[in-house]
Design brief:
Length: 280
């Protein structure tokens, strides 16, 4: 009777139980999300569009204001804010940032890649934290730099009429940095809503509704109601950080920004809860 001698598996064979497998860590998940983010052409184009909108429209508003300044009425001059004029492009930039935030999540659901992602990271939540943290960091760096460039370019254009300002006056630096912070939270809100809804069209519509439609609807309310409700709406609260002069019924800059952050964190918490319960 012959005996069978077991043969050792070939070197590098996937069947070998001795081949070590890497642990899933938050750092590795973050790196994998970075690869996804930087290899998508839509990411590059959308972020460039946001920077161009921020800088370009700020420069346009400043150039038009400088050209009209000799013919402007005293009332218009009294309400003129050189810092805010150069930063007006943030209003359009927020649309690009919000849309990309939604796509960071819903793009994987649309292609079905999310199933592979969740299989690789069974606990799921590290994926959401990585997407939110990474996109927030990228947005903050680019939008803060864009806001500073927009401010400097705008003030250079306004200097032709000697109506420019610097970062030294109270509130000016806070406004410039506030643009980067506001747009960062817009991006975080987009990621959270994308994870909540998991549909690109629905997520984008929800972001636009929160940032643009709700304030417009509030303005249709009686003045007393609008004064009571309007300052606590997401975009109004966040934009308090970018306002130099506040009215009596509006929130203080950092208080308003804190309220805006609470909206984003609440949406992110809801997304985390649903991510654990729903199928990919």
């Amino acid at each position: 009777m012959s005996t069978l001698t077991p043969t050792a598996p070939a070197a590098g064979s996937a069947a070998s139980p001795d081949v070590p497998r890497g642990r899933v860590t938050q750092a590795r998940v973050l790196y994998s999300e970075w690869i996804k983010l930087r290899t998508l052409r839509s990411t590059f184009y959308t972020l460039i569009a946001a920077v161009v909108a921020l800088v370009g429209f700020g420069a346009l508003f400043c150039a038009v204001t400088a050209n009209r300044w000799p013919h402007m009425h005293a009332g218009e001059r009294a309400h003129f804010d050189p810092a805010l004029t150069s930063l007006r492009g943030y209003f359009l930039a927020q649309l690009a940032i919000g849309v990309l935030g939604v796509l960071v999540v819903t793009g994987e659901y649309a292609t079905g890649m999310i199933r592979a992602t969740m299989s690789a990271v069974p606990r799921r939540l590290p994926v959401l934290w990585a997407k939110a943290a990474l996109y927030s960091a990228v947005t903050w760096v680019l939008m803060t730099a864009g806001a500073l460039i927009a401010f400097l370019v705008g003030q250079a254009l306004l200097s032709s009429q000697h109506i420019d300002t610097t970062l030294s006056p109270p509130g000016a630096t806070r406004m410039v940095l506030g643009v980067g912070l506001y747009l960062t939270v817009v991006g975080l809100l987009g990621v959270a809503i994308g994870a909540l809804i998991r549909n690109t069209a629905g997520g984008i519509a929800t972001v636009f509704g929160l940032l643009l439609v709700l304030p417009a609807l509030a303005e249709a309310l009686p003045q007393s109601w609008n004064n009571a409700i309007g300052p606590y709406l997401p975009s109004n609260a966040g934009q308090a950080l970018i306002s130099l002069h506040r009215e009596a019924h509006t929130l203080a800059p950092w208080t308003g920004f804190g309220v805006f952050c609470l909206y984003a964190l609440a949406a992110l918490a809801g997304a985390a809860a649903l991510l654990k319960r729903r199928d990919a």
